[in-house]
């Protein structure tokens, strides 16, 4: 069973519907104890970094046991990905720190004035694969996958071996990360139609659910 963690910071319903559409069994939970039987865990996220850290606190102990010790496949989405890193310019609290890196606001000050873009980064954009990962697989030979983004902050200072996807918005930034069984994506696969379905199928295959 794939468990979608409802900690008050994400649209769990859309993710659950997408998983059901591709034939995967999934449920949402607001209770830490329910995670003990999870075969895979998805952490969505919409909102500010510190609120995410605070709302996730009751789940930290069980998440560390399941993800770090039992090595259950884990996928963080949008803010859920950012919380995997160490800290963020958006807040004062520390993230989970499961993957090295920080979260920074888009900064176009080094670009020419006519090259500066609006923040948040919102809408469809292409991603480029980084380090090889089972989560990121193109549907067609040499095709670029397109996903839906809504965010003002992005991952930075992530080790090269943990970067599985890149995107360009004013400059290249990391939009997909992985360390062992832990995955994170900045974009919203549940809003990304064909490519989002494929990414979830890839995650289901990894989780063998």
Helix content: 10-25%
CATH architecture descriptor text: 3-Layer(aba) Sandwich
Form type? globular
Which range does the strand content fall in? Answer: 25-35%
Give the class from helix and strand content and strand pairing: alpha/beta
CATH class: Alpha Beta
What is the helix tally? 5
- What is the number of domains? 1
Provide the low-confidence segments as ranges: none
Instruction: State mean pLDDT (0 to 100 scale).
Output: 94
Q: Could you tell me the number of beta strands?
A: 12
Straight-line N-to-C gap? 6 Å
| CATH topology label | Rossmann fold
Radius of gyration: 16 Å
Any overview of this molecule?
This protein is an alpha/beta fold. It has a single domain (2-207), classed as 3-Layer(aba) Sandwich (Rossmann fold), CATH 3.40.50.880. The chain contains 5 helices and 12 strands. The strands form 2 sheets. Strands 2-1-3-4-12-11-10-7-8 form a 9-stranded mixed beta sheet. Strands 5-6-9 form a 3-stranded mixed beta sheet, with no helix packed on it. A hairpin with a 2-residue loop joins strand 11 (171-179) and strand 12 (182-185). The model has no long low-confidence stretch (mean pLDDT 94).
């Amino acid at each position: 069973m794939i468990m979608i963690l409802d900690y008050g910071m994400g649209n769990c319903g859309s993710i659950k519907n997408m998983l059901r559409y591709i034939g995967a069994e999934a449920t949402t939970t607001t209770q830490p104890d329910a995670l003990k039987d999870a075969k895979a865990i998805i952490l969505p996220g919409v909102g500010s970094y510190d609120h995410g850290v605070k709302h996730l606190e009751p789940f930290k102990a069980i998440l560390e046991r399941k993800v770090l010790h039992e090595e259950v496949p884990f996928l963080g989405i949008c803010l859920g990905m950012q919380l995997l890193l160490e800290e963020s310019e958006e807040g004062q609290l520390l993230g989970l720190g499961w993957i090295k890196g920080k979260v920074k606001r888009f900064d176009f000050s080094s670009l020419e004035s006519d090259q500066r873009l609006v923040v948040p980064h919102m809408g469809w954009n292409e991603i480029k694969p980084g380090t090889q990962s089972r989560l990121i697989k193109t549907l067609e030979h040499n095709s670029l996958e397109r996903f839906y983004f809504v965010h003002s902050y992005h991952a930075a200072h992530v080790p090269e071996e943990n970067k599985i996807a890149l995107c360009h918005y004013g400059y290249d930034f990391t939009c997909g990360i992985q360390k062992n069984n832990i995955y994170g994506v900045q974009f919203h696969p549940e809003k990304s139609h064909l490519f989002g379905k494929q990414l979830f199928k890839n995650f289901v295959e990894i989780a063998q659910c």
